[in-house]
Amino acid sequence: SQAAWCELPSRVLLVLTSQRGVQMYDSDGSTMVFWHALDVPEHPAAHSVFARGIAAAGGRFVCVGTSFGAVLVFDIPPKGTNVTLSEVLEQHRDPVTDIAAEQGQAPDGAGDLVTADDSGTLCLWSTGEEFTLLGKIPGSGSSCSSVRLWNGIVAAGYGNGQIRLWEAGSGRIRAQVSAHARWIYALDLAPLTGKLLSGAEDSFVHVWKLSRNPDTDDIEIQHCHAECVTDTQVCGARFCDPAGDTFAVTGYDLSEILCYGPA
Amino acid sequence: MSARTLPLLFLNLGGEMLYILDQRLRAQSIPGEKARKDEWTDVDRKRVMNDIIATMFNKKFMEELFKPQDLYSKKALRTVYDRLAHASIMRLNQASMDKLYDLMTMAFKYQVLLCPRPRDILLVTFNHLDAIKDFISDSPGILNQVDETFRRLIETYNCLSDGEFQLIRQTLLIFFQDMHIRVSIFLKDKVQNSNGRFVLPISGPVPWGTEVPGLIRIFNHKGVEVKRAEFSTAGNYVTPQREGSFELYGDRVLKLGTNMYSVTRPVETHMSGSSKNLASQAKENIAPNPLAKEELNFLARLLGGLDIQKPAGGETGFRLNLFTTDEEEEHAAQTRPEELSYKVINIEATQEPGRRAELSRILGELEVAEPRPGSAEKGEDLLALMDGL
């Protein structure tokens, strides 16, 4: 199960995913705005059924991934409950893991949405009345567990502990980091500064800084800070502010949310 | 959640149970010639292990187990092990059975948590099976059954992706969430903290397929590496030597799932935990379980299908004590916190078709059409009623 705030120009929705499907609530959690059930087979199939991966996109849509590989695109009205399923994107052949919308300024031709799956495949889209597939980056054996998109840079975290940065426009790899010793569970990006947060099962949370070299146009990534959450497998990590000065961490068997900030 | 988790949960917990029983039986056994009528001998021990393993790997049981399905509640699963532990001439009191189950579950929780890669959970399972084959190495019939299950595991799981294994792992971790029973062998080995949480090492070999953290590589727009940088952390990792074998025979490399008990290291558990943990466990027991009836039907079918050897006339059952003395066992039974009691269901289900039909009829009569107003415990009522069978 996942929960995410989807910020659209007109409203903020709380979107929840589970084995049954997708639920959308008003920002104070009081009213259920919409509910989409996934087709669940009579008897439990060998392949699990679930929705996973949530993102607000194009100022108008909420996209949700599924275990079938399909990405559901919901058209959200500025007010009320008349949410409609506008499109089903079927480019992934493996369960969708994460979806991210552009958090900064997309360079020309770079697309404003990225979707990721269990095979490590990334798809780049341009959103609109009809979504267009701009490019596909094939996986190389490791699941891409989480993804972010900022100024045309795709930041992807993998099950083998690697972080990779891809150029969204060309689909080329620009950086590879042996970041963690275990499965990366969470990535987050602070759009004002380009700080990247990664949390993994190895108990570590790392803060990185993304940037573009204006002369060479190379994408750079620097390590800023490491935190070890002793004896805890980190399951969630998020920046608490758009500059990335503070962040929150959750872990398995942990009933607390840990918050980290400047000294 | 993954519908393929139950076989792995069952086989690994079963494996841990056998390690513990074997250790206790060895610790309490007396050489054959010197033994009195009510004391354990080596022959008895081998017989108990054979009986339990034969029951565990029963063909029909395995077929049911491998069908895609959700995990059952802790209660339902505990009942199966209760039955399994009594598949031979051995008897266990409630306190000993509780302790056995605590040890089994904490051991497997530890193994799941520390698995380097999600698919290494399969290597852990293979470690258990390798050891089980060793226990019954001189019984070719049972050995065959175990090999059959081994092959089934390979067929079902070897082809799954990392993502699917991670889902299985998450399903297992949710099952074990908030369990913090302290085990003295873990505490002594500094593998568990005094608050019940496991120690997660930040050193040692990285999983197969992962690089030692520290390297940053930058590529230009042509894909050529133009810069390297390093970063350091508190971790102290090394490259692994080789990958474990996923074949029927082979070096698994991973030590998780191998027998950590020996005759000289008695195992104790400590019942206390922080009140937070107890509260959350208590809440779990009270919440209505809509699957309860489904589970009972499944269990009744399973237990009815189990080929349980009852002691022949004249043979008495031997009692095994998981504690060092009878007084300790008695004390443990009296002081076990209410929240941690397993509320075991006793189901008498046999092969006789007459009894089976009777059981189905009784289950049918127990069907509650709709919850009584104000009743939050539909599942609980059914389970309580089954107690009286």
UniProtKB/TrEMBL annotation, chain A:
The keyword Repeat applies. It is found in: Nucleus. Its main location: nucleus. One of its GO terms (biological process) is ribosomal large subunit assembly. Gene3D superfamilies: YVTN repeat-like/Quinoprotein amine dehydrogenase. Residues 2-258 form the WD repeat-containing protein 54 beta-propeller domain. InterPro entries: WD40/YVTN_repeat-like_dom_sf (IPR015943), WD40_repeat_dom_sf (IPR036322), WD40_rpt (IPR001680), WDR54_beta_prop (IPR049546). WD repeats lie at residues 177-218. One of its GO terms (cellular component) is nucleolus. It holds the Pfam family WDR54. Keywords: Nucleus, Repeat, WD repeat. The keyword Repeat applies. This is WDR54 protein. It comes from Sylvietta virens (Green crombec). The lineage of its organism: Eukaryota, Metazoa, Chordata, Craniata, Vertebrata.
UniProtKB/TrEMBL annotation, chain B:
It comes from the Eukaryota. InterPro entries: OSCP1. GO terms for cellular component: cytoplasm; plasma membrane. Signal peptide: none annotated. The gene is Oscp1. This is OSCP1 protein.
